[in-house]
């Protein structure tokens, strides 16, 4: 293998290892929050949500190799657009169903 | 012997003719008649194919083809066949409602329920969707200078899945009943408690097949536009039809998933006793409405955006003018596409959420009228100062502008939750959405057929019959649907098979008259196609540019060769072909030709479609062996295909050169036809550009630069 | 276009296989779009679950009564290591085109994935037999089984796909189509891991915490 490839491979291997370590830490942290009752109530939910968000970003960055490099910006825009659609659909659904639920006769 | 293992729940009495024998009535006779037409139609097709020896060409040249042009044509063929059925159903419903004041009419309530359910389901999923999909498939790659879509085989598979869904709906005419739950199939009515039997299952699986097909099409077309544009075709040089295709594709990618989720949940409720939408045990039927319209509202724009693209092409071409406000049209399309995901609640304002929720979605709905308004002004301003030719597509366009604006205004009314509460579930709503979809989508597709037919088949459609058909469709639509606004405000509810108010009768009679005119329009349209095929010699326009067109699709012969472009074009502006004609550099021979790789035909897609259809049929009738076997076979076909290596063939450069040089020579040798002669047999598809008129003598039409 | 330029999100073949790298651009972009469409499907299932896990309990058990966090934690680790193993298989393919190396890593990925599916089936078995919590018991459980079941079905089809790819690697070797299929399977596999983050957080941890 030419030296440039060895270097490239080292970089990409490191990416997977970093991803694995970070994911392990975050996962263990999330389970610890609940298992050891570190937080409770709304704080627990917010903390868990934040940990999940960070871990999703870690996976996207280190396993799926998404970065904000210029050369594939068009594709990336479409993928990022998905996030907007997800937010609209999920928050809209939860909002509407919750609103209907609280207005119903018990 | 346990027959249920073999035939599932199909019994002798499942066949539509059994009803007529056991319980004769006019309603049953009509059902049997429809079943007979389906059976006889299929039989006649088989006999025709056998007698003419067309089985082999049908299989070899069409069903196994992965060429985007043939796939597009097949989509539109499905759309037209299904349109014939659904428009007849519409006329039957009109007749029933007219006949059923203070009496039962001639259809049973159940039969009427099936009619409005199949009419809606077919018109949306198996007329409008295949029509726009076929059109996008055919035209878009030609407009961006590509040889095919990104994934030709996937494209054929999408087609076959859609066809499988359409066949399933046709089968429901003969075997069993269809759903009576409307095209939106709201539970709990469509749950197993209130709708036992196969009807809702037919709806679920037909719609699911169509929806999977559409998702894959959206993916395919979006990748094509992103990755296969010819050199120089930057995003902001793309024709507007391509822009609307891109936005529609993106909507398809995201909007179909909620529908799939909703149909899967409904199926699990019905087949496995789950509690997503049931009345008790924690089910929530309001979530169905939520999920369905998460899909349903973007769906409206999936349908209308390609039609907006068609209107943009038509108005520019027949006004002989560059489209007014290109950039604003592009941004308006994008705004509509994004906003369409944020208004779905306006379909169920009355479901009980608080006024604040309704208000927010009402406001979002009104906002979506703004970019649409921008588009209307752009089209109007394109006509200002142009030389307008009142050809059939242009007539449709002007009619569209007038009637669509009225429909849009009733839409703004309905966007106000207070008004919506008053007319919810009445014929006012029915009038409104037909007012958007018929002049917008359907007439857009008809205009597109008139406009691109000569490109597809190499001869124009008969103009006189086209106009005659238009003059039936346009007033027919007004007569059929404007009375429904009045009826709705008088309180007439939708999907009602029997009335007690005699005041409705005159309005219903007017609507019936409209339905008759629409049927006449359709008959004239079929006649127009038949006559045009017969007179194809006089109407021939093989040189490809009968309307003095603007985008790349008009620069190649009609019908286009398998490879579309002998050499991929290199564009440097919007309206590249028009600019080339203006500069006198159209029809130049390229410097060199190269071999072209095209995908081979394959049986993969039709086999997948066949097994998908069998799978769905097995599920509908609980024929488990069939469902399991077909499902396994679908994947066996997919896996077997992944081992195939010899999937492409090469067309040698010499073949391409011979064909293309012959076309170019003919184009150069033929005198260009001026616009006032474009509807005569002089029009061989070589246009004398409007842009050069008044500068007579600058470039004689025959001359062209020989080599680059 | 420089060879090292990235043409699509995800692991690129730039540098080692220029021809495959260019062929990948269109195919991989298409697959990304498919993944996004799939993600929207999961989003809708998550939203439904979010509503029904609170409002759809009826007479059935509550989330905290039926979930086993230890099992969920082990499943999370299995899927995470499986994802990591696939990453190493891809490096083996990209830099060495070494059939044996790729097959070994694929085998490990598949075993971890199969263990994940097995554990999930065991979870279902325990819920149904010991907690009287089948999907028919309530809206909450219907939504739970559909969400986790859809994910498990994705993982299972990924496993079938993996077997086919192993056969193709062994029989055909690293032609461009085979490489592109492995790259797509890798994206699919990593994406399922991302979806699982949502499941263990919003289903299991939220269910027990609230």
Automatic annotation (TrEMBL), chain B:
<feature type="domain" description="Cytochrome oxidase subunit I profile">
    <location>
        <begin position="62"/>
        <end position="572"/>
    </location>
</feature>
<feature type="transmembrane region" description="Helical">
    <location>
        <begin position="29"/>
        <end position="51"/>
    </location>
</feature>
<dbReference type="InterPro" id="IPR023615">
    <property type="entry name" value="Cyt_c_Oxase_su1_BS"/>
</dbReference>
<feature type="transmembrane region" description="Helical">
    <location>
        <begin position="465"/>
        <end position="487"/>
    </location>
</feature>
<feature type="transmembrane region" description="Helical">
    <location>
        <begin position="288"/>
        <end position="311"/>
    </location>
</feature>
<feature type="transmembrane region" description="Helical">
    <location>
        <begin position="72"/>
        <end position="95"/>
    </location>
</feature>
<feature type="transmembrane region" description="Helical">
    <location>
        <begin position="436"/>
        <end position="453"/>
    </location>
</feature>
<dbReference type="Pfam" id="PF00115">
    <property type="entry name" value="COX1"/>
</dbReference>
<keyword id="KW-1003">Cell membrane</keyword>
<feature type="transmembrane region" description="Helical">
    <location>
        <begin position="623"/>
        <end position="644"/>
    </location>
</feature>
<keyword id="KW-0479">Metal-binding</keyword>
<keyword id="KW-1133">Transmembrane helix</keyword>
<dbReference type="GO" id="GO:0016491">
    <property type="term" value="F:oxidoreductase activity"/>
</dbReference>
<feature type="transmembrane region" description="Helical">
    <location>
        <begin position="202"/>
        <end position="226"/>
    </location>
</feature>
<keyword id="KW-0679">Respiratory chain</keyword>
<keyword id="KW-0813">Transport</keyword>
<dbReference type="InterPro" id="IPR023616">
    <property type="entry name" value="Cyt_c_oxase-like_su1_dom"/>
</dbReference>
<feature type="transmembrane region" description="Helical">
    <location>
        <begin position="323"/>
        <end position="345"/>
    </location>
</feature>
<dbReference type="InterPro" id="IPR036927">
    <property type="entry name" value="Cyt_c_oxase-like_su1_sf"/>
</dbReference>
<protein>
    <submittedName>
        <fullName>Cytochrome o ubiquinol oxidase subunit 1</fullName>
        <ecNumber>1.10.3.-</ecNumber>
    </submittedName>
</protein>
<keyword id="KW-0472">Membrane</keyword>
<keyword id="KW-0408">Iron</keyword>
TrEMBL record, chain C:
<feature type="transmembrane region" description="Helical">
    <location>
        <begin position="186"/>
        <end position="207"/>
    </location>
</feature>
<dbReference type="InterPro" id="IPR035973">
    <property type="entry name" value="Cyt_c_oxidase_su3-like_sf"/>
</dbReference>
<dbReference type="InterPro" id="IPR013833">
    <property type="entry name" value="Cyt_c_oxidase_su3_a-hlx"/>
</dbReference>
<dbReference type="InterPro" id="IPR000298">
    <property type="entry name" value="Cyt_c_oxidase-like_su3"/>
</dbReference>
<feature type="transmembrane region" description="Helical">
    <location>
        <begin position="152"/>
        <end position="174"/>
    </location>
</feature>
<feature type="transmembrane region" description="Helical">
    <location>
        <begin position="102"/>
        <end position="119"/>
    </location>
</feature>
<keyword id="KW-1003">Cell membrane</keyword>
<keyword id="KW-0472">Membrane</keyword>
<dbReference type="GO" id="GO:0016491">
    <property type="term" value="F:oxidoreductase activity"/>
</dbReference>
<keyword id="KW-0560">Oxidoreductase</keyword>
<keyword id="KW-1133">Transmembrane helix</keyword>
<feature type="domain" description="Heme-copper oxidase subunit III family profile">
    <location>
        <begin position="29"/>
        <end position="208"/>
    </location>
</feature>
<comment type="similarity">
    <text>Belongs to the cytochrome c oxidase subunit 3 family.</text>
</comment>
<protein>
    <submittedName>
        <fullName>Cytochrome o ubiquinol oxidase subunit 3</fullName>
        <ecNumber>1.10.3.-</ecNumber>
    </submittedName>
</protein>
<feature type="transmembrane region" description="Helical">
    <location>
        <begin position="29"/>
        <end position="51"/>
    </location>
</feature>
<feature type="transmembrane region" description="Helical">
    <location>
        <begin position="71"/>
        <end position="90"/>
    </location>
</feature>
<dbReference type="Pfam" id="PF00510">
    <property type="entry name" value="COX3"/>
</dbReference>
<dbReference type="InterPro" id="IPR024791">
    <property type="entry name" value="Cyt_c/ubiquinol_Oxase_su3"/>
</dbReference>
<keyword id="KW-0812">Transmembrane</keyword>
């Amino acid at each position: 293998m030419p030296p440039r490839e060895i270097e490239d491979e080292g970089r990409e291997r490191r990416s997977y290892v970093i991803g694995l370590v970070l994911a392990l830490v975050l996962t263990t942290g999330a389970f610890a929050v609940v298992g050891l009752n570190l937080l409770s109530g709304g704080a627990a939910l917010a903390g868990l949500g934040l940990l999940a968000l960070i871990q999703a970003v870690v996976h996207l960055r280190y396993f799926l190799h998404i970065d904000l490099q210029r050369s594939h910006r068009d594709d990336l825009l479409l993928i990022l657009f998905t996030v907007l659609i997800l937010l609209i659909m999920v928050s809209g659904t939860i909002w509407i169903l919750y609103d209907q639920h609280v207005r119903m006769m018990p | 012997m346990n027959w249920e293992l073999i035939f599932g729940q199909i019994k002798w009495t499942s066949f539509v003719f059994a009803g007529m024998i056991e319980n004769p009535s006019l309603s049953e006779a009509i059902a049997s008649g429809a079943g007979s037409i389906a059976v006889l139609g299929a039989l006649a097709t088989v006999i025709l194919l056998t007698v003419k020896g067309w089985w082999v060409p049908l299989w070899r040249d069409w069903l196994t083809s992965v060429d985007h042009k043939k796939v597009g044509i097949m989509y539109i063929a499905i759309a037209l066949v299904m349109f014939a059925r659904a428009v007849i159903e519409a006329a039957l419903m009109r007749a029933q409602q007219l006949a059923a004041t203070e009496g039962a009419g001639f259809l049973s309530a159940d039969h009427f329920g099936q009619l409005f359910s199949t009419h809606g389901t077919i018109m949306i999923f198996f007329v409008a969707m295949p029509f726009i999909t076929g059109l996008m498939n055919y035209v878009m790659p030609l407009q961006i200078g590509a040889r095919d879509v990104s994934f030709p085989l996937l494209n054929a598979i999408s087609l076959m899945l859609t066809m499988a869904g359409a066949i399933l709906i046709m089968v429901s005419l003969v075997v069993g009943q269809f759903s009576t739950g409307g095209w939106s199939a709201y539970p709990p009515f469509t749950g197993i408690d209130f709708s036992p039997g196969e009807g809702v299952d037919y709806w679920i699986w037909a719609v699911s097949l169509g929806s999977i097909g559409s998702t894959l099409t959206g993916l395919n077309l979006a990748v094509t536009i992103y990755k296969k544009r010819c050199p120089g075709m930057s995003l902001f040089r793309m024709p507007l039809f391509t822009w609307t295709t891109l936005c529609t594709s993106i909507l398809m990618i995201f909007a179909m998933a909620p529908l799939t989720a909703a149909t899967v949940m409904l199926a699990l409720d019905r087949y496995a006793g789950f509690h997503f939408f049931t009345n008790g045990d924690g089910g929530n039927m309001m979530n169905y409405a939520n999920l369905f319209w998460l899909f349903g509202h973007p769906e409206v724009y999936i349908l209308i955006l390609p039609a907006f693209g068609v209107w943009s092409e038509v108005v520019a071409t027949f006004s002989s003018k560059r489209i007014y406000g290109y950039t604003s049209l592009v941004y308006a399309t994008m705004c509509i596409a994004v906003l369409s995901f944020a208004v779905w609640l306006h379909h169920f304002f009355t479901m009980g959420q608080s006024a604040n929720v309704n208000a927010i979605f009402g406001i979002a709905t009104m906002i979506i009228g703004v970019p649409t308004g921008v588009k209307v002004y752009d089209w109007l301003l394109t006509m200002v100062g142009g030389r307008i030719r009142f050809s059939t597509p242009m007539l449709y366009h002007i009619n569209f502008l007038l009637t669509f604006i009225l429909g849009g205004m009733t839409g703004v009314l309905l966007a106000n939750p207070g008004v919506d509460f008053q007319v919810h579930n009445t014929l006012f709503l029915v009038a409104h959405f037909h007012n958007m979809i018929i002049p917008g989508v359907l007439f857009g597709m008809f205009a597109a057929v008139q406009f691109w037919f000569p490109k597809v088949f190499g001869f124009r459609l008969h103009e006189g019959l086209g106009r005659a058909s238009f003059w039936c469709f346009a007033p027919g639509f007004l007569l059929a649907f404007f009375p429904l606004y009045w009826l709705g405000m008088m309180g007439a509810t939708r999907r009602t098979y029997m009335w007690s108010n005699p005041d409705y009768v005159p309005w219903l009679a007017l609507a019936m008259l409209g339905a008759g005119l629409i049927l006449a329009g359709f008959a004239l349209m079929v006649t127009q196609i038949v006559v045009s095929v017969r007179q194809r010699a006089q109407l021939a326009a093989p040189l490809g540019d009968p309307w003095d067109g603007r985008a790349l699709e008009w620069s190649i012969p009609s019908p286009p060769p398998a490879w579309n472009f002998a050499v991929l074009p290199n564009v440097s502006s919007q309206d590249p072909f028009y600019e080339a004609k203006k500069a006198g550099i159209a029809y130049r021979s390229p410097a060199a030709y190269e071999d072209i790789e095209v995908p081979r035909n394959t049986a993969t897609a039709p086999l997948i479609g066949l097994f998908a259809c069998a799978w769905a049929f097995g599920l509908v009738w609980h024929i488990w062996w069939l469902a399991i076997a077909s499902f396994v076979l679908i994947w066996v076909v997919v896996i077997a295909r992944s081992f195939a290596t010899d999937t492409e063939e090469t067309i040698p450069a010499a073949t391409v050169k011979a064909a293309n040089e012959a076309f170019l020579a003919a184009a150069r040798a033929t005198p260009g036809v001026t616009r006032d002669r474009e509807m005569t047999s002089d029009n061989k598809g070589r246009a004398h550009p409007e842009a050069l008129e008044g500068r007579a003598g600058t470039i004689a039409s025959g001359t062209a630069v020989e080599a680059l | 276009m420089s060879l090292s330029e990235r043409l699509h999100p995800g692991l690129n073949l730039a540098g080692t296989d220029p021809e495959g790298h260019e062929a990948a651009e269109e195919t991989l972009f298409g697959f990304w779009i498919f993944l996004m469409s799939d993600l929207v499907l999961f989003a809708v299932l998550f939203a439904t679950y979010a509503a029904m896990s609170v409002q759809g309990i009826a007479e059935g058990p509550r989330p905290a009564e039926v979930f086993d966090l230890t099992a969920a934690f082990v499943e999370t680790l299995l899927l995470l290591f499986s994802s990591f193993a696939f990453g190493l298989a891809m490096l083996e393919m990209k830099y060495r085109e070494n059939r044996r190396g790729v097959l070994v890593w694929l085998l490990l990925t598949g075993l971890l994935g199969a263990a994940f599916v097995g554990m999930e089936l065991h979870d279902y078995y325990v819920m149904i037999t010991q907690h009287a919590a089948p999907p028919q018991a309530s809206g909450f459980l219907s939504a739970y089984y559909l969400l986790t079941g859809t994910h498990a079905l994705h993982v299972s089809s990924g496993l079938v796909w993996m077997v086919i790819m192993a056969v193709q690697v062994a029989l055909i070797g690293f032609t461009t189509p085979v490489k592109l299929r492995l790259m797509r399977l890798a994206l699919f596999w990593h994406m399922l891991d991302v979806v699982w983050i949502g499941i263990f957080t919003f289903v299991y941890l939220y269910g027990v915490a609230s």
